[in-house]
Amino acid sequence: MSSDAPAGWYTDAESGQVRYWDGTTWTAQVSPIAETQAGTVAAPAAAPASDAPRRSAIGYIGIALAVIGTVGVCTPWIPSELLGGLVLVVGFVLSIVAVFRRPRWAGIAGIVVSVLGTLAAGVLFAQGFVTGYTGG
Q1: Which pTM value belongs to this model?
Q2: How far, in Å, CA of 49 to CA of 52, rounded?
Q3: Distance between CA 115 and CA 121 in Å, rounded?
């Protein structure tokens, strides 16, 4: 599991101690939580082990599906237009889900590509309707 959190000691909720994060993985090193002079527990520098940021591939999948769907809806063949529209919708939904995970930029990029693909499909549909396109 990788994280953007820097290496250091973090509270381990399961053991009630602090555990060392080396920047990429949790080590076996644990230590009792240090008491401050006032007798209160020192606040952790970052999130506990169970809250370490997780990387998600959903955003990347959303971008890929949005691009594939955009290409599909922009082709002059009705089956690929329909399939491309379906793939575009799935890419859009996955991109929305990815906005709530890391990296957020992948979800946002997938949404932007999906919206642009939908706009392009709308323009091409309107153009085809005006010119009498029959899908052949």
Answers
A1: 0.57
A2: 5
A3: 10
